[in-house]
Amino acid sequence: MAAGTHYLPGLTPTNEASVQKSDDAAGYYVLGDKLVDPKTPTGPIADRWTTRKFENRLVNPANRRKLDVIIVGTGLAGGAAAATLGEAGYNVKSFCYQDSPRRAHSIAAQGGINASKNYKSDGDSDYRLFYDTVKGGDYRSRESNVYRLAEVSTNIIDQCVAQGVPFAREYGGLLDNRSFGGVQVSRTFYARGQTGQQLLLGAYQAMERQVAAGTVEQFTRHEMLDVIIVDDRARGIVARDMVTGEIETHLADAVVLATGGYGNVFYLSTNAMGSNVMAAWRAHRKGAYMANPCYTQIHPTCIPVTGAHQSKLTLMSESLRNDGRIWVPKKAEDCTKDPREIPEDDRDYFLERIYPAFGNLVPRDIASRAAKYMCDEGRGVGPEVDETQADGTVKKFRRGVYLDLGAAIERLGKDKIEEKYDNLLDMYERITGENPYEVPMRIYPAVHYVMGGLWVDYELQTSITGLFCTGEANFSDHGANRLGASALMQGLADGYFVLPNTITDYLADGPFDKIDESHPAVVEALEGVTSRVEKLMSINGERSVESIHKELGQIMWEYCGMDRREEGLKTAIGLIRELKKEFWTNVKVLGSADSLNQDLEKANRVADFIELGELMCIDALNRRESCGGHFRGESQTEEGEALRHDDEFSYVAAWEFGGEDGAPILHKEDLIYTAIEMKQRSYK
Amino acid sequence: MKLTLKIWRQANASEKGALKTYELDGVSSDMSFLEMLDLLNEQLLHNDEEPIAFDSDCREGICGMCSLMINGEAHGPEVTTTCQLHMRSFKDGDTITIEPWRASSFPIVKDLIVDRSAFDRIIQNGGYISANTGSAPEANSVPAPRDKAQRAFNTATCIGCGACVAACPNGSASLFLGAKITHLGELPQGQPERYSRVQSMVGQHDAEGFGGCTNIGECAAACPKEIPLDVISQLNKDLRKSLILG
Amino acid sequence: MRGSSVRAVATTTLIKGARSTRSTIALKLLMAASGIVFILFVLLHMYGNLKAFSGELAYNEYAEHLRTFGEPMLPYGGLLWILRVVLLASLVAHVGSAVALSMRAHAQRPVKYAVKKNKASSLSSRTMRWGGVALLLFVVWHLLQFTIVKINVGEGGQAVDITENPYRLLTAAFQPEQWWMVLIYLFAMLALAFHLHHGTFSAIQTLGFTNTAESRARARVAGWVVAIVIAGGFSLVPLFTVFGVIS
Prior knowledge:
The complex is a heterotrimer.
Chain A: E1 30-31, H1 48-55, H2 61-64, E2 68-72, H3 76-88, E3 91-95, E4 113-114, H4 126-136, H5 143-163, E5 188-189, H6 195-213, E6 216-219, E7 222-230, E8 233-241, E9 247-251, E10 254-257, H7 278-285, E11 290-291, E12 296-302, H8 320-323, E13 325-329, E14 347-348, H9 350-354, H10 364-376, E15 384-388, E16 394-398, E17 401-404, H11 406-412, H12 414-432, E18 441-450, E19 453-454, E20 467-469, H13 487-507, H14 520-539, E21 543-544, H15 545-559, H16 566-586, E22 587-588, H17 598-622, H18 646-649, E23 651-656, E24 665-670
Parallel strand pairs in A: 1-24, 2-3, 2-10, 3-6, 10-20, 21-22
Antiparallel strand pairs in A: 4-5, 7-8, 8-9, 11-19, 11-23, 12-18, 13-14, 13-17, 15-16, 17-18, 23-24
Helix pairs in contact in A: 3-6, 3-13, 4-5, 5-13, 11-12, 15-16, 15-17, 16-17
Chain B: E1 3-9, E2 18-24, H1 33-46, E3 69-70, E4 73-74, E5 95-99, E6 108-110, E7 113-114, H2 117-124, H3 146-156, H4 163-167, H5 174-185, H6 194-207, H7 218-222, H8 230-245
Helix pairs in contact in B: 2-6, 3-5, 5-6, 5-8, 6-8
Chain C: H1 24-50, H2 56-68, H3 78-108, H4 123-126, H5 128-146, H6 160-163, H7 166-173, H8 179-206, H9 213-242
């Protein structure tokens, strides 16, 4: 498309609906109907959101307090939505499994938040942010959603500043920006390396204000175990009070899931220990489609695993790649040497070598995969770890590559580097015990974010009427890959500006018929949860939940990680099915169900991770193309680059639950672009 | 390495608790402190003893969920959170006493887990800037001096873990309180509610039963985010001004 | 709905319109203000004591002047009575706040830690409460000895030429044969130094004058200076008396 024509895009599609020819997952799934109506507005892309907001029905302020909304999760998407709907006057009930809403894992995001403010006058615009996001997502996202995201991004910054979020500022007192994640404009707002924390605390404080005002009721240490559906509408949830063990039902006119991502299906990830898929998966089992579950973002700059005891991984901000040079020894025998003793000539700066144009700043998936290949070749560094191969044999690998700040320290001075990365480097030293100013840091990719999630329409409503899904928990905005500093943007966009404007159209039909605890659907949901908990407590087998989770993680990482192939994925599906049997016959949970019981909590979560893992593998198996965070070994260029097949796979794979032992049902939503033209990525 | 662990066990809020001694072998110095406890829990599960309940979530030092008193020091011997403390800070044969935060305003839920909802209620009582969604002016319309914005940021890094209360002999939450008062009070957006905020937040702090500050500095030394003692001075100053202004 | 009684261990509810004037911080402000009154008083007191180095005449003249100060606007001894009232009020405020705050602190931690380390607090800051009690006992002793003049010791301690002569009252108290009296006073001055060392810093912090690391460091120096000057200044008179320089 020629530059500028997007202002008058017309509605001429730039691509055709894809027709899938390959069928790798044959036998593992059932093909369902196409999804034809994601309620996307038509018209020029820049007008769609405005049009939709105008067309949506509103709720009279006097009627709002008669409407109850349950919001599960208190991260950016959930906290912001609770605050906003509370301010509007709805009765909000907010749930989180942590002891306070302020602890949601959005808090751990380091880098920043994008917004098309164009404060630097470097040519940024809503359209450019939209363009970068769709392109970054490898053309696997819905264009209307992404444009809306770009459009509201500027409002987010205004809102957060008004709340007192202490963004970085220039000497004149105006907001500072930096360039992030390889884009050419400076549009990232940040609060040192703790942007997520500051944004979350802003949302949390806004929400607590509503708690004081009486519009939001807060349920901490509560975990959602099921969704209650009455007459085909989501009308509440079943939740467990994690302190007393009581299983409660909470009813409402609408339910919002803002429960974050499911990266912990890999056991090791940068997610919080408690991050889980249960809420989304329970909804999936009740009819909500799960979209693109295989799209996983693997972040290249994490601190490597040190041993079997490892419980989670820690991210080092990607910004380090601006100054650090990534290398491994040229010769495998150098891998055990002190890196400072390896001469320049014996170092392989592999990203600079393979991708001379972008060098160390290539996108996350490319950097991650390159590091993996170096280690697969036997040129990794750091401690040796055992890895079970597909044939059952155990091989030793070193899983780490150097990120060397030496050259930057020489060029800019230690002070400058300290000023830029002080906190990060301190953290690195605390975890590894090595001083990054002296010894090159070791990094390795780790699971960081999932682009997949519950399928939602343009209104953020799932395929269950009255059940909405926001933030990382939904699939909507990032396509197959998320750009840096976009997760915070999406969470807050959904929470502050999108959901509060779309849910009203649904609530305008309410209040719905009053139901109470004795309603058969409520009783059934409650009984279902209670019997599942009883079952978990009664198996009394030999294996800890932790050990089964770890095994699941190893299967997923090995076969559904950075390089996925048909054979491996099929192996994985078999292994996961066996593991599921093992879990339900041999798991051991001590203590009682009617008190605080962390093993029981974990067991509930891991049971759902196992089922999700299988679906992820099936989705990955079906998608015989490489796009964004999904790399199929069978689909690469001669140079080993990811190769998309737009003619076959430019669709959203929305999976319907196929019953306890049935195959999942695949519904395809075609991705048709009118405001942007698909291009093959190239970072050479 | 091999360790002797003395850990507080308490079935629930109403039962009496006691320190219980465990021996743990096979601890690697690369483990985090919580991974060491994971290992102990795996061993306990194997021996049919109920695992020890303790809080942790992000395990990267930012969510503020972890909360252990380790050998008499909140979050242990390093200036960091419990989850970022690593076993290389200990040596083979050490005895480590692990207790929950002790304060009446943080009642024990189970074993090492305490209820810190008092902090939420303090925030509910004014720990915010009232800015309804959608009503915000253009972000750059009000410049904020850089040094003030930096001080606001430095104090906004509080993770609400409660180490300050745990370390304070008076069980005061003044550092937590001062951090929020300073964060919001340093920004132009925080001015309209500045003095009503300090009054209601201090009121809730006291209603929760937290002790008074005696300026001895144990809180700032225990703070994993190194929030300095001067936020308490700022808190005092703002309260004093608010009392004079009425 | 079953979710209504969810807070298992909640202790308090949200309060509105709290009485900040009765808050812990208001108590601390009261304590700081009364503490400053004491600091000013002991400075003045110490200045008077040092008059002993100028000899009997100057010292007694000073003592008499304190009583006639402000005449005829004030009656004889009026200033001293005003001072006594102010000091008594400050004492009530200081001790009252201390007791209230101390009770809060105890209520907040009924179960003690099995192991507890002090990381940053000075010894002086941790001895404020018991040190304060010790000082209070000392003040009672000191008043009985020098103001009410009931327990003066030594040969002829109750003789009129001593009780009516401030200078001789002073020197008689610290004769070498009453070395233990000197020790009591030196010990009390040590306690005072401790109390002032943290008290001065704490008052400055409570009043909100230490909003930067530099001003906090200055407040700490102020604590040292006040403690050394006052306790040191007071100690000079008993020491020089017992060694015969003042006679």
